[in-house]
Every structure is written in C-alpha cells, then in structure tokens.
Amino acid sequence: MDLFDQATPQRCRIGKVVKSNSHHDYVVQVDDQQDVSAPPCAEDFGFGQFVSLENENRHWAVGLVYNSQLSNPMFLNSGPRLSSEPDPLFTPDLVQETRILLGVVLIGTLELDDGTCHGWHGIPRAVVPVNTPVYQMSGEEVYRFHLSPQGQPQFSYYSQLLRSGGTFATQLAQQVLTQLIDSGLFQGADQRALTVLCRELTWKNTMSAMR
After folding, report:
1. Could you tell me where the beta strands, DSSP code E, fall in 72-165?
2. Nearest CA to 36 among 6, 57, 66, 59?
3. Rounded distance between C-alpha atoms, residue 45 and residue 34, angstroms
4. Are the CB atoms for 179 and 195 separated by under 8 Å?
5. How far is residue 62's CA from residue 30's CA, in Å, rounded to a whole number?
6. C-alpha span between 101 and 64 (Å, rounded)
7. Residue closest to 134 by CA, chosen among 33, 34, 9, 40
8. DSSP string, 46-100
9. Which of 28, 44, 42, 173 is nearest to 107 (CA)?
C-alpha cells in the first residue's frame, strides 16, 4: 500500500490546511469549484469522517472531522446591494467569499514497515504545514490505521476523542465506535468490548439530553 500515491483514481481530495487552533486541532478549507474542477460533495467531509493529511513527499497525520463552519463575510453586510445576482465573470472575488471550514482533530499517523501499513495512535509530533492537502480515507486505510505493528486491532485514541473532540466529543466517539463495530475489524472479546463501550456512551448521551 503506497501512502503517497495521490494519483489513485478513488482518492478524494477534500481541501487543504489553512490554520491550526492547537498542536492537534487543525482547520481545513474545503475545495470548491474555484479551486478544482471536481470539488468534494457534502458526504465526503461529514461529521466523523477519517481524513489523511499528506502531500507528495510525506504523510503527516490521520484526523477526524469533528466540526464545521460556514464562513460568509457578506453576512449582515450593511453596504449597498446589487439589484440582481453578480456575474461571476466580472466579480470573481464575490464568488470566493463563502467558504466551508472543517475542524479536524489529529489522532495518529499511518506507518509503513517492510511494506506493511499499520497505524500509530496518539498526537503526532510534527507540525503539519499550511496548504497541506487533505484526503478522505478509504475503508482500507481506516482498516490499516486500526491495526498495530503486530497486526492486532487497536483503538488507543478513544480517551483523546473525549478530551479533544469539541462540543460533540461523545457523539463523535459514539459514531466512530459504531463505524468500527459495523466494519467487522474487531472480533471476539474486542468486538464485545467496543459494543459495551458504545452502549455506555449512548446511555450517557441519552441521560445528558434529559437533564
């Protein structure tokens, strides 16, 4: 598996890194029609989506989309308004005013050892550069990320999600757990442990909503 093969047809580029809020909390600007000929659709960067931050030279980190924000500088603008929709040919800057920004929490990296891909879970040490491309991770990449160097299932970033997943941290952890359970990666005792953990989170979310 080549982590840097960005020419693979099924790879879906979501956008690029534009800033960070902390060492493991990054802001990604979603590509639109002004940036690329085939921009991603809304389902490609939804809540809980696994993403890979990488360029042609290096894989930097694996992250999870935990938040989104619509940036529209024209909102509540008290200036004069045009009588009709502006022509994009003559007002390109107006077209590019509105952007979609994603909050991405970094949860580890993909590693290659002797041609075998596996995951490392934790906060990456390296700082991801501005303008680093961000890609939607495939099912195979998500699967590999949840394998240890010994080929055993792992889910070591759970506590990090609860601490760093923002306002919807428990919902994010619950969605990731559900996705992993449905994937069939974990078997036997590991699968049962994930199921119990998911049920506990569901119960906590239900009870907190009733308070």
Report:
1. 99-113, 116-121, 133-136
2. 6
3. 18
4. no
5. 17
6. 14
7. 40
8. -TT-EEEEE-SS-EEEEEEEEEEEEE-TTTT--S---SSPPPTTT-HHHHTS-EE
9. 173
Contacts of 86 (CB under 8 A, 6+ apart): 94, 95
**Alpha-carbon dihedral 57, 124, 200, 205, rounded to 10 degrees:** -80
Look up the pTM and report it: 0.82
List pLDDT tens digits, range 63-114.
Answer: 999 999 998 776 666 566 555 565 655 555 555 578 999 999 999 999 998 8
35: which residues sit within 8 A by CB, 6+ positions away? 15
CA–CA gap between residue 23 and residue 105 (Å, rounded): 9
Distance CA 123, CA 105 (A): 9
The two tokens of residue 122 are: 């934790």
Interval 158-198: pLDDT, tens:
989 888 877 888 889 999 999 889 988 888 988 898 899 88
Nearest-angstrom CA–CA distance, 1 and 115: 7
User: Rounded to an integer, what distance in angstroms lies between the CA atom of residue 21 and that of residue 72?
Assistant: 20
Task: Indicate the SS3 state at residue 211.
Answer: coil
C-alpha–C-alpha distance, residues 122 and 62, integer Å:
10
* Residue 55 one-letter amino acid: N
